[in-house]
Design goal:
mainly alpha, 2 helices, 0% strand
């Protein structure tokens, strides 16, 4: 009986050793994959940060340029409005005529029979 169990025990021990070696290899392979995945993920994060920096810089330049264009356009419109504005300069005769008209209007509006 002792002889029959000897080779079987050796076969079983060898099989267990092979399983343990395979488990260790699988664990090491999983760890390597995990590290590689983390490196890929960090590279993707860095790409995203770089893209974000570039986009932010471009948007800042775009906003600055738009602000400049709007400011310039507003100033041009204001200048045109100033040039187009009707400027009335009254001479002494016109001022006297206007004062007389205002006095007559005030007198007519303050009369007791004004309705």
């Amino acid at each position: 009986m002792g002889n029959n169990n000897g080779p079987r025990n050796t076969d079983a021990a060898t099989a267990i050793d092979e399983v343990l070696v395979a488990e260790t290899a699988a664990r090491q392979a999983m760890e390597a994959c995990s590290q590689e995945a983390e490196a890929i993920l960090e590279a993707a994060r860095e790409d995203a940060r770089r893209i974000n920096r570039i986009a932010t810089a471009r948007l800042t330049r775009l906003h600055t340029r738009c602000d400049q264009l709007v400011t310039g356009r507003v100033e041009a419109l204001r200048a045109a409005a100033r040039e187009d504005a009707v400027r009335t300069v009254l001479d002494a005769a016109d001022r006297k005529l206007l004062a007389t008209a205002v006095d007559r209007l005030a007198a007519s509006m303050t009369r007791p029979d004004h309705g």
